[in-house]
Amino acid sequence: MTASRTQIVAGNWKMNLDRTAARDLAAAVAARVGEAGTAELVLCPPAVYVDTVGAALAAVSSPIGLGAQTMHDKASGAFTGEVAPPMLVDLGCRYVILGHSERRTLFGETDAIVNAKTKSALSVGLTPIVCVGETLEEREANRTAEVVTTQVKGSLAGLSPAELEKVVIAYEPVWAIGTGKVATPQQAQEVHALIRGLLASIGSPEVASKVRIQYGGSVKPDNAVDLASQPDIDGALVGGASLKADDFLGIAKAFGA
Ligand code: PGA
Known about the structure:
The chain is an alpha/beta fold. Helices cover 44% and strands 14% of the residues. It has one domain (8-256): TIM Barrel. The longest helix is centred in the C-terminal third of the chain and has 18 residues, at 185-202. Bound molecules: 2-phosphoglycolic acid (PGA).
């Protein structure tokens, strides 16, 4: 955590909850937003509940950001079942998670696709949360740096320094997602430092110093404090623990302290 970067903690609700539960969870988090201290909070409900959650947040004039979990890169057209970036803006979204490992492995998203979506998000004023991370097999083969470098360069290709500055990156080792196996703070810090170095080379050291890099993968209130103490970890992308207000706020507190 570096004082100059506002810490950002986002809840990725994935394909969970129903409409009532989504609204209630958003209201519960909003009522206790003060516990997050200086950290910025973002909630990313399933697409069909974005409107409901947005309304729950707006009803209490909450500063919590609204986000989506994915989107198409085109603004409109014949793409059955897809959601367009301007539609998310229309619903009050300010963020969109892109290239989550589940999108990459289960839905075939490549770095080129993530890159097109990232550019598209920026063009409509959405802040992309671009996810990268290695599998267990890749880590064990000592390929973490190579894999993460390829993903970062590919996903952010062609962005101007001004655009790069606006992106949030989430480093999520695939082996830590939903498994209860969190990376050690040192393992995470090492990759975060690598990513910041890459941002310095593709943008500039100044740009790199501004970009927020979240850690994701089995973040819980009890491991968040040590993660938050690392110099290049600027927040968390939280799956399972974001479905409980107590746990999500416990994590937010660690980053906003
Ligand atoms: P997890 O998921 O916190 O349940 O490991 C994180 C993510 O997939 O973003």
